[in-house]
Queue: 2 jobs
Job 1
Amino acid sequence: MKTPLFPLVALGAALGFSNASAAGPLNVPGTGDGIEMLRAVGAAFTADNPEIPVAVPPSIGSGGAVVAVAGDREVIGRIARPLSDTEKAQGLVFTPVVRIPSAFFVHADAKVSELTSKQIADIYSGEVTNWKDVGGADLRIKVVRREDGDSTLAVLRASMPGWKDLVLTGKSKTALTTQEAVETVRAVEGSVGFGPYSSALKDTVAVVKIDGKAPTDPGYPSAVVMGLIHKASTVTADAKAFIAYTGGDKASAIISGLGGVPIAQ
């Protein structure tokens, strides 16, 4: 008498076994920094490896990726900050992928294309409140900031002149993701925000030069590193293959074309 197939499948699922198609795509949750770049690299990887679809979902932040991978809910994630000693002790391993400049961007009606580092610090401290005071339109400035633990804000504090101990104005909106910051600046007249640079950003908002330098110019003062995290105890062969692919020539060309600086692994 043949053993019915259904009980065996059910038993396998209960024990945590599954085949590749049942497992679904290789999910890479985490930061919004560099999401367009990683999606493009993921699409290229899947084109070269059709049996391994890659999904790069909307941002849940670097912290969300750490929780997901450390808690064994995902085998791989994306973050835009260094791992803490506590996170390393949990077995997390970081592989850098791309250096992404930290850009400032404004609503087109602000009528500014360049600011000094002092002017941008004065805007975010609340000392300057109208665009006309920095050469723009006679329009009230509406500041969009990020939460204190945001990776781009941390990089600005570490590298942008005047930002180390800058107290951000209380008259501001806190965006919880990069996408929210960009969308708010796109939609709200007079607004200014910051986030990781990508070539697509300038199609949505006006990216400003700082001290005469565009985000992609040599010597631009501020950038964040986005990379992938995994645990050696849970990483799969598919995840290892994707991590290796992000350091290859094809991924590097994609990243460069989208405004990032590839990092050799």
Note: The chain is about 35% helix and 20% strand.
Job 2
Amino acid sequence: MDQPGLSEREHGSALNGLRRVNWWSRSSAILWPSIQKLSHTVEQRPLRILDIASGGGDVALNLAQRAQRAGIAVEVDGCDISPYAVKHASDLAARMQLEQVQFYERDILQEPVDRQYDVVMCSLFLHHLDEAQSVQLFNIMSKTTRHLVLVNDLRRSRVGYWLAWAGCRLLTRSPIVHTDGPLSVAGAFTMEEAADLARQGGLSGFQMSRHWPQRWLLEWSRT
């Protein structure tokens, strides 16, 4: 999806395909328990959440829906380097009538955000970065959060590769997703590699857990 010259039709098809993949793999369900737990320990409302590299916006929007059902006031911002992805996500938020979710364009590695959030998270973004960029991202996330950093990503494994190959073909007709899915797993970090990069980025005392299908979650709390 990062290739130049990609048409809006192809890009939109790929983002819709990834939304189905995220639904099937329960991306927001991996992140939500940590956010819900934090909501019980902080008094200020609304809880402010930043989703870095938010793509089509479905994860951020799903989290806002979960918060709404739980009676937890949130403001969710999503930032992405792609102007089309931001427009796509904003249109989806409008259709879902979730005014508490906003999206804006930002290359987070070049333009760190100028405000603090209670939760700073990213989902399926780290595997797009090299090691130096990953260390930079962890450092930026730790400086931007008041409370919690959450990173949800793919776990490089043979099982994960074949699950991605099969799942992407079953869930979407987008040839871009068919190609990107397995390649993303092949380029992902192992949990041990990601943990080492997080330490280099200034995080310590974090927790990592495995999740279906072939995912991991890194959770770091300032407290």
Note: DSSP finds eight helices and seven strands in the chain.
